[in-house]
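Practice problem: predict the structure.
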Amino acid sequence: MPRLLLLLGMLLIGVAGCGPNVVNMQALNEFPQPLVEPLPVSVGVYFPPEFGSFTHHEERPNVAGGEWTISIGPTQLQVFRTIFAAMFRSVRELDSADAAGEGLAAVIVPSIAEFQFALPADTRATVFEIWIKYDLSIRDGHGAEIGHWQFTAYGKTPTAFLKSSEDAIKAASIIALRDAGASMVSGLERDQRIREWLGVAPATPLAGR
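Answer:
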């Protein structure tokens, strides 16, 4: 019995010592600007406060999962600013979602509709995965909503050569954000509905130089 109590005590100490997993991402030192021909329109962009400070908190039921806090806001904001600046002739950041902008073809309001991640314990594979479903509210120059454009960004990274699970989640998040940028560029190139909302003619090229 004393030996059993000792083992239980050691187990409880081990569990108590396992703190939460925290991933705090900051702006990257460099994010490549896409080589595209800018669309000949001026747009307004409103970044809600929660977009620039987005944090996902989740408590996994099993011991292998644990408690996770993943903050991607600063990196996400940097990526979207870079992509928008490359895709349009000019971009003006607005103070509110319904702000009217003279000379603007449209106003874009990005948000996260869904955020998910998977650990090796979830998939029984040595990879960490991230899914981010984005929703871009497209509005006219007076702030009236025209429609919504949704797309999903995905990133994964193996555990090899990474120091910790937090590093792996961070790496997968960066890959997912790069995928988000690629999705926005290709969407504007191929989705005629979006181009109509922006007042861009079908013949307007959007090809890499």
